[in-house]
């Protein structure tokens, strides 16, 4: 991994500051998505929970933004160079960010041992209701369903129990991701398959933990028409602007409308000037 040892020490210190036997919610944030962090945080605060939030800043611009929104000891700086390109699903920059994810979570979970639970959330996941009561049963991990028919899970919304099984899952996931920059979802499902029988990964109910196919991409969907929904994830929508437009259209964008990301790649600026 390209992460430096001092980064791991910093991440461990952030986790150690969490209350014992508590739940820590972890997010990662690059300069491209600081506005999404603000929107995500407002939804979490609506739940009126005292759960600790730890934010991992993927670059210095994100770090500068996050220390203004969270206590300093809950923001971890990775000292990675800022990615200047846009981060579409097929971009190399997106693959580079995703390849770091298992390492981030592995260090965090180790610091919470032996009793703390970790919940990881992508920033395009809207927390409509408290998800914590759903992490029950003898599971090492709980993950959102990506494609029920194909049996695929999405680690963009993932809970980890303090077990040897969850630690083994993160090690195997990280082993695969560290081979080359790549999207994290296929590697996660490969790790789950590799450890079948040794690690129990439970799928969260797809009718409650909604993918974009069940929420943002349905013309008549809204939180008001689907009051049972726990989270809604804009995972099948590619790109910052398209995700944000979908959230604004459905009234789930709580951050100020004039708030922009800390970094707007040149391609985004050009599109906006052209009115697209």
Low-confidence regions: 1-20, 266-276
Shape: globular
Give the averaged pLDDT, no decimals: 85
Task: Give the distance, in angstroms, between the N- and C-terminal Cα atoms.
Answer: 38 Å
- SSE class: alpha/beta
**Strand count, sense and closure of the main sheet?**
7 strands, mixed
Q: What would you report as the Rg, rounded to the nearest angstrom?
A: 18 Å
Strand content: 15-25%
* Helix coverage percent: 25-40%
What is the string of helix and strand elements?
Answer: HEHEHEHHEEEEHHEEEHH
Strand order of the largest sheet: 3-2-1-4-7-6-8
Number of strands: 10
Number of helices: 9
Structure described in brief:
The chain has nine helices and ten strands. By secondary structure, the protein is α/β, with parallel strands linked by helices.
Structural overview:
- The structure is a single chain.
- The protein has 276 residues and is α/β, with parallel strands linked by helices.
- Helix content is 34%, strand content 17%.
- It contains nine helices and ten strands.
- The chain has helices at 5-16, 34-46, 60-66, 92-99, 101-112, 164-177, 184-194, 240-249, 266-273; strands spanning 23-29, 52-57, 75-77, 117-121, 125-127, 141-147, 152-160, 201-203, 209-210, 231-233.
- The strands form two sheets. The chain has a seven-stranded mixed β-sheet with strand order 3-2-1-4-7-6-8. Strands 5-10-9 form a three-stranded mixed β-sheet.
- Helix 2 links the parallel strand 1 (23-29) and strand 2.
- Helix 1 packs across helix 5 (101-112), helix 5 (101-112) runs antiparallel to helix 6 and helix 6 packs across helix 7.
- It starts with a helix and ends with a helix.
- Residues 1-20 and 266-276 have low confidence and may be disordered.
């Amino acid at each position: 991994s390209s992460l430096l040892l001092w980064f791991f020490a910093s991440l461990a210190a952030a986790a150690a500051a969490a209350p014992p036997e508590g739940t820590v919610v972890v997010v990662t944030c690059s300069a491209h998505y600081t506005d999404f962090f603000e929107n995500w945080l407002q939804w979490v605060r609506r739940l009126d929970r005292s759960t600790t939030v730890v934010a991992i800043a993927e670059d210095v611009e994100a770090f500068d933004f996050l220390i203004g929104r969270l206590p300093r000891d809950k923001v971890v700086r990775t000292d990675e160079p800022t990615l200047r390109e846009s981060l579409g699903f097929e971009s190399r920059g997106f693959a580079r960010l995703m390849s770091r994810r298992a390492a981030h979570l592995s260090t965090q979970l180790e610091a919470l041992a032996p009793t703390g639970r970790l919940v990881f959330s992508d920033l395009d996941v809207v927390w409509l209701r408290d998800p914590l009561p759903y992490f029950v049963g003898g599971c090492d991990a709980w993950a959102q369903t990506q494609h029920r028919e194909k049996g695929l899970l999405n680690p963009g919304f993932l809970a980890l129990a303090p077990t040897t099984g969850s630690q083994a899952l993160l090690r195997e996931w990280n082993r695969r991701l560290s081979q080359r920059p790549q999207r994290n979802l296929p590697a996660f499902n490969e790790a789950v398959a590799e450890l079948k029988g040794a690690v129990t990964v439970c799928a969260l109910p797809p009718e409650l933990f909604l993918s974009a196919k069940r929420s943002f991409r349905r013309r008549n969907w809204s939180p008001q028409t689907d009051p049972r929904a726990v989270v809604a994830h804009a995972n099948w929508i590619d790109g910052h602007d398209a995700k944000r437009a979908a959230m604004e259209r459905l009234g789930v964008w709580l951050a100020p409308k004039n708030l922009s990301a800390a970094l707007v790649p040149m391609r985004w600026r050009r599109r906006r000037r052209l009115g697209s």
